[in-house]
Amino acid sequence: MTRALPLRGTARRRRGRRSALAIALAAGLVIAPQAAAQAADHQITVHPDRDGPAIADNMYGVFYEDINRAADGGLYAELVQNRSFEYAPVDNPDYAPLTAWQPASSGGSAEVVDDAGRLNERNRNYLRLTADGPRGYGIANTGYNTGFSLREGAEYDFSVWARTDQPAGTPLTAVLRDPSGAPLSRPLELAVRADGWAKYTGTLTATKTSTRGRLEVSATGPATLGLDMISLFPRDTFKDRPNGLRQDLAEKIAALNPGFLRFPGGCLVNTGSHEAYEAPNWERKRSYQWKDTIGPVEQRATNANFWGYNQSYGLGYFEYFQFAEDVGAMPLPVVPALVTGCGENQATDDPQLLRRHIQDTLDLIEFANGPVTSTWGAKRAEMGHPEPFGLTHLAVGNEENLPDEFMERFAQFRDAVEAEHPDITVISNSGPDDSGQVFDRAWELNRQHGVEMVDEHYYNDPAWFLANNHRYDGYDRNGPQVFLGEYASEDNKFRNSLAEAAYMTGLERNADVVKLASYAPLLSNVDYVQWSPDMIWFDNARSWGSTSYATQKLFMNNVGDRVVPSTATEDETLRQVVTRDEATGELIVKVVNAGSAPARTHLDVGTEVDPVARVTTLRGDPEAENTATQRPIRPVESTFEGAAAEFDHTFPAHSITFMRLRPAQS
């Protein structure tokens, strides 16, 4: 992600020239008069005997960033918020060590402490719970949003690290309840047996369906206990993985068929990277280090997120690599370059810190690809994955506003990586916008240094996307190549998706230059929105794709293997590209009609095709939005029975149409 929201009103509002017609079309306001409609016929001519650029198998992917509570309370399936009591009002006074916890009974007390009795050096805070007598005392966790989403009959894995001052042991009970205190499960009875930390586990089965569940943990006394890492995971996670991912969100991402997964974010990667690395992790502020995110979860650090909340790091680099593998995507991690963007605009002058981060990057490659006999490959194997993850691409930096300072450091990262791993593509970037002084200087330096791939980011209004369909037509074919790592039209209405789809036809037409592209951001929790628009929205029980999700899914599942050159009549409302599916021989004709009138079009495809074509269409009111309860924009499958070497077809107003034409059977 590019920068904190208050900055959106400045740099991101500076845009290129737009025609009045393009602006009106983007708003869905143009209604063509009858005379214009009669004259508004279109021609698309396809040249199947010519070869356009090949399209990379992984051209379209997803960009994941922990923004909008995308990890804890989102993709990471943990139901307990603040499970290790590490929340702190470092950057946000709304967070405190007992955030999301509340007393569940009388007859005792609970306080968060940091002393020599802690679980470990990284997980410093723990709960000291005192139960005065046999009535017991407990606390309850309220989770995220309205509470835990529980499904009748579903199993939930409970765990806690605990210790007691009672040599004979102390009974500990876990149970699910609703806000009134009524039980939503049978109680789970455990016995904490010693004054040393140990992990206790069990299973709770929901007896009712609820979206307002609570987890109550209580002890009977007299006793004083230490409790830490109080956790509740749904048994059903994506691919049934422990410490896994929320199933519905992961499945929606998998359904996109992403070619790559860029992680762990943008601003949170490079901001805070100036903090002294040798400082204890609990003293670093917003300093994201990949090594803090691996190993047993109870030994991982927590972090004060750039976006204003604490991250548990339960979803860490191992889980990112594993998720990429599970969905068939190329992993694409981003590491800090020690030049920050996102409103900070600082460059480190500490050569020792720079060397440390460069070594961290080399260690990351070894963690991903090294043999089990290597230091970091062994750590990967210890976590359950002895086989390499197959890392091929790595990005250094994110949207730096100091291009000269960035390039000086980027070159050192790239030289170090190429010396040990010449097969790794090291990706640079061009700052936070689509044009301007920083953009121009960054591209100048990237060319001078022979950079292989440059990451571009921009968020613009629909008119910009409609007017800039030919943006990449004039890019140098000799490089560098483009990774369009973040882009979106600035709303989640269908008019925004129409503009994005029109723009994507230009990305595909220039697939020899634009090698990778990802809409951003990927995820947003409706109760923790820090950036909008977003591709997938969710609360604690439901998830739904925006109209841009429907658009991205259509493109990502119908890419094709090679562009087939085609031409169309010049028009401000119609955009098209044609690709070929080499496995089936089909021509995939992709047409976006952003206008308010149907587009009567004559297609000359230059070869005989089967008369029955498969058609997928997205269409609707340009002001329509997909919500938790309404999905007005969704794909409609149909057939068209008039296909031939030449034929007419009308593309509906405000529509995205994919037509698959099979070769004629001899």
TrEMBL record:
<dbReference type="InterPro" id="IPR051563">
    <property type="entry name" value="Glycosyl_Hydrolase_51"/>
</dbReference>
<dbReference type="InterPro" id="IPR017853">
    <property type="entry name" value="GH"/>
</dbReference>
<feature type="domain" description="Alpha-L-arabinofuranosidase C-terminal">
    <location>
        <begin position="485"/>
        <end position="655"/>
    </location>
</feature>
<dbReference type="InterPro" id="IPR008979">
    <property type="entry name" value="Galactose-bd-like_sf"/>
</dbReference>
<keyword id="KW-0378">Hydrolase</keyword>
<keyword id="KW-0732">Signal</keyword>
<dbReference type="InterPro" id="IPR010720">
    <property type="entry name" value="Alpha-L-AF_C"/>
</dbReference>
<dbReference type="Pfam" id="PF06964">
    <property type="entry name" value="Alpha-L-AF_C"/>
</dbReference>
<comment type="similarity">
    <text>Belongs to the glycosyl hydrolase 51 family.</text>
</comment>
<feature type="signal peptide">
    <location>
        <begin position="1"/>
        <end position="39"/>
    </location>
</feature>
<dbReference type="InterPro" id="IPR003305">
    <property type="entry name" value="CenC_carb-bd"/>
</dbReference>
<dbReference type="InterPro" id="IPR055235">
    <property type="entry name" value="ASD1_cat"/>
</dbReference>
<dbReference type="InterPro" id="IPR013780">
    <property type="entry name" value="Glyco_hydro_b"/>
</dbReference>
<protein>
    <recommendedName>
        <fullName>non-reducing end alpha-L-arabinofuranosidase</fullName>
        <ecNumber>3.2.1.55</ecNumber>
    </recommendedName>
</protein>
<dbReference type="Pfam" id="PF02018">
    <property type="entry name" value="CBM_4_9"/>
</dbReference>
<dbReference type="Pfam" id="PF22848">
    <property type="entry name" value="ASD1_dom"/>
</dbReference>
